[in-house]
From TrEMBL:
InterPro entries: Caprin, Envelope_fusion-like. GO terms for cellular component: cytoplasm. GO terms for molecular function: RNA binding. This is Uncharacterized protein. The lineage of its organism: Eukaryota, Metazoa, Ecdysozoa, Arthropoda, Crustacea. It comes from the Eukaryota. Pfam families: Baculo_F (PF12259).
Amino acid sequence: LDESIEDFAVGLATMAMERLPALLFPPMQIQAVLKEIKAILPSGWSLSPSIQMGDTWQVYKDAKVAVAAIEDNLRIFIHLPVFEFPFGFTLYEVISLPRPTKNATQGAQFHPLPAFLAVANDRQAFTELSTHEAHRCMMTTTSICPISKAINKRHREPSCAMALFLKDEKRSRVQCSTKL
């Protein structure tokens, strides 16, 4: 009994640090829960590649735990990263070249522009990346880039960079500014 109480106390302390305790959630239980999660994920969505390959210990590393006291009970929320994999993206570095103005003595540049633009192969989805975020993509040894930003649909989210990429003059006039 003392050992069970101590395990429970260690488990609560681990959850207080937003980590998933293996003492309270053993690997076999985690595997059963993952199987249930995989069964209800929408088409094209999945857990991280390492978890998909059966690395149960990765769950303990990736999971973020929140505990809430509800009436006389504790509610445990376990957040796992979920990935959407239906898109292949091409990473483009954005270079803003000045274009001549009417009097041709000065040049104007579009802004705001990100350092990089990742565009889906069908050109229907994109995300803007900073130099740091793109560097993580370029340094990975796999073809999976750890993008932690929202993937935007082409016409839902305004983007100067995407309007210019698609050569959409109407949207680029609305979504882009120029500076001398």
